[in-house]
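ingest -> fold -> write
write: protein_1
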Amino acid sequence: MKHPPFVNVAVTGATSGIGRAVAARLAALGAQNVFFCGRDPERVAETEEELRGLGTKARGARLDVADAAAARAWLEDCDRAAPLDLVFANAGVSAGGREDDEAAVRRVFGVDVGGVLNTVLPAIDLYRRGGGPARAARRIAITSSMTAYHGMPQCPAYSAAKACVKAWGAGLRGRLRREGIVVTVVCPGFVRSRITDANTCPMPFFLEAPRAASAICGGIARGRGLVAFPLPMRLACWLLGALPERVSERLFRLLPEKDGASPRPRRTDAHSRDAMQEKMAEREGFEPPVPCGTPDFESGTFDHSDTSPRGCPRNAELRQAAPTAVLDK
């Protein structure tokens, strides 16, 4: 289906994956000016050439959205050149399996959360200043992810960052609607990108970027609050988020790790029964169980053939006292 075109748009992270496909889709639908940014100058030049081939005025810039001042200056320059009616905060990175690397984790939050803030907040300011009849609409789109529905042990930083912007976008939508600013949050599943190209884990319901871009542009044009696809993946992620924690944790243990990720630690002596009994013994009113059986006072041993409560009265007492000791911690 063809959607009403936006006239002047700005897209971050548009030199690959979803961002590039969305920029191309908007150009094909009739956008007159497509402003975009990326960090790699070669990919910026390639994307600019592709978009101009679609008949739009494409203007690419080399930009790291984690730089708040630079991101704001870029958006203000774009708006002066042509009043924006869509700002798409799409730039994002993953830790690439290096979830134990502090620098990688901080980079994920710096781009996936900080970069979204650095894009959306200036866009809100620009829209509030007006723009007159030259501004056809006032739309903001934010790329989140299906991982936002539940923290993923395979990518905790990425899923946490995406959950943050998903919740923020949903809140902004209700807050800004009265001002005529429409916010859409996009939660795609596995879509062809530089991030998924590096994945070696299974990626069910995988989509190519142009097909994802069609769904995204359609949802934004219709003013939807949430564009989440594909449907089977959305239902599965929603269910994981709704399940009891104990059940979801068991399911996540079955999923494979990403290449480069630190292996999960195996159970050690610290988790053994003796160690657990020592920890329990530290709690007031608890003693480790004594051997079960009938005591033989002459030999100083127990007859283990008698395992009834009569043969093990002390354990019976401890079994009654232990739950209280645990609850009183």
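write: protein_2
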Amino acid sequence: MSYKQGLNIFLCGLITIGIAACGGLSEEELVATAIVETRAAATPTPLPINLTITLQDDLGNPMPETRIKVKGKAQKTNADGLIQLADIDDSIQVEANQQGYELFDETFSLNQGENAITIQLERNPFGLLPTDACNTDETLLFIEDFEDRLAENFYGIDDGALDEYSIGVDGTGNVVMRVENINHEHTFYMDGQFENTILRFRIKFITESEVNFMLSWQASFEKFAQAQYTYIINTYEPIIAFRQDGREGSMKTDPMDTNASKMPSVGEWHLIEVGTFDGVNILYLDGELVTRFTDKDPLDPGSFGFGQFIYDTTPLTGLMYVDDFSICGLTTDIKPLDKASNTQ
């Protein structure tokens, strides 16, 4: 058999669609038909699915170095507020749960090739933004506004161990911590020991009574011998401040000088700021200095706690709200928040 006859037989074997017989085709026709049939049978390679996510705040500004979840896995935006993903599935869930904003949780269907999604978060009107919690020369260490209806790392609240405390909604839709009734129970923050810091929170006395709010600062709750700076806040007398030391039954107190004209009022939000820096202890009420005390033997780093109490055994009930806790690290002297306000 000649070369030409062999080529004809080989090419005829390749061509199976649309040709009844090969005998009448020339060599050139057979080659051309084989090329066409081979190309038609080839499966094109699909394009990969790529995605660029742009994360923006409520004003349309990019949110750099911000963590979100993509299909349950943490991802972090770059300096331009972008996340770029390559060769992913055609359906993807994106969750952004940022402090001070409403929860974003949505599933997107993607096409082959390049995809782009812009996520603009919606501001929670009652959420505390990290940028509003500290001054520009301070470092945010802790923030809690209860908008997720949890009081994480506050003793006895989420698990219901303390009856006085609960997370609820006030009349405006704001989620707050409610402190009510008088069982002399105290909660405290369990996750951290703080030094050279300032604690900020808001308080609102709902009922008018001789109920006191006691704040413990730089406290060590794990030791039987407690040492702390104590502030007693109410609506019927000036704020009382003192350092507290000693064991149960032999407690020693050293009073601090206070501004006798400053006290909260009923039915209004007030901003409390209490800080310690290099032995100096300061408390501000709505941005105004209440007490300044220099401790020659400063306490060790500690946490904070609070609760209600009364001076005598007279049955009393009281209700107050607390909200928007933050702790900021200090590198210089204590000063009030630039945006100090009780208007929220």
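write: annotation protein_2
Helices lie at 3-14, 27-41, 130-133.
Confidence is low (pLDDT under 50) at residues 6-12, 14-21, 247-251, 340-344.
pipeline exit 0
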